[in-house]
Amino acid sequence: MPRKRVRSKRKRDKRPAESSLDLICSFHLGGGFDDGVFDSLEEKRAAWQYYRDQVMAEYRESWPGERPAAWWQFDSGIESYKDSAVDEWELLLFLGELDPEELRTVRRQWIRTLRDLCDSLRYVYHYHRLGLVRYLGYISCPWPVACETLERQADLLGADAAAAWDAMKQSIIESADAYILMDP
């Protein structure tokens, strides 16, 4: 004779949807609850709360100075950072969300990026000196705006970044002045 199975009255783990590429992409790339992964915003919020620590640890390691879209949506208290005129790491610093190690990594990356921008900044300064705003049809970032942005960021990142920016700016100005003096 068949036996009737008795179900356990133990509470089961109320884990949201299993971790999958869709779930992770939804956290990282954003989208509303209607992004095809979740049936409701509440379901997405519950899944985020469940996986938050895992995703945040991965983000801090792989993308220092950035946060996944789900963090901005549920934890930041800010409607939209994409409309901001500052870089994401600046906003995180203002919110007190960067730990010292992450800030050191952001500083190193910023100085490396600054070095990579050197030639482009030379062109920006050169065309600024010539009074041009366009170069081959492209609108150039005005020199004063570039300086203001980089000085603000350097001040936020500390003495190393400020020294790197000051040296870079001086080098750009000196090389452009030498170029203008050589121009027939």
What does this structure look like?
By secondary structure, the chain is mainly alpha-helical. It folds into 2 domains: 19-76, no CATH class; 100-184, no CATH class. Helices cover 61% and strands 2% of the residues. It has 8 helices and 2 strands, in the order ααααααββαα. It has helices at 21-29, 41-62, 69-74, 88-94, 100-116, 118-130, 143-157, 159-182; strands at residues 134-135, 138-139. A two-stranded antiparallel sheet has the order 1-2. Helix 5 (100-116) packs parallel to helix 8 (159-182). The longest helix has 24 residues, at 159-182. Mean pLDDT is 78; it is low at 7-19.
Shape: elongated
Helix content: 55-70%
Backbone structural class: mainly alpha
**Count of discrete alpha- or pi-helical segments spanning 4 or more residues:** 8
Largest sheet: 2 strands, antiparallel
Measured between the Cα atoms of the first and last residue, the distance is 106 Å
Explain the layout of strands and helices.
Layout (H helix, E strand, L loop, with lengths): L20 H9 L11 H22 L6 H6 L13 H7 L5 H17 L1 H13 L3 E2 L2 E2 L3 H15 L1 H24 L2
Antiparallel strand pairs: 1-2
Helix pairs in contact: 5-8, 6-8, 7-8
Put the structure in a nutshell:
By secondary structure, the chain is an all-alpha fold. It has helices spanning 21-29, 41-62, 69-74, 88-94, 100-116, 118-130, 143-157, 159-182, and strands at residues 134-135, 138-139. The protein is built from eight helices and two strands, in the order ααααααββαα.
Tag the structure with descriptive keywords.
184 residues, mainly alpha, 2 domains, 8 helices, 61% helix, elongated
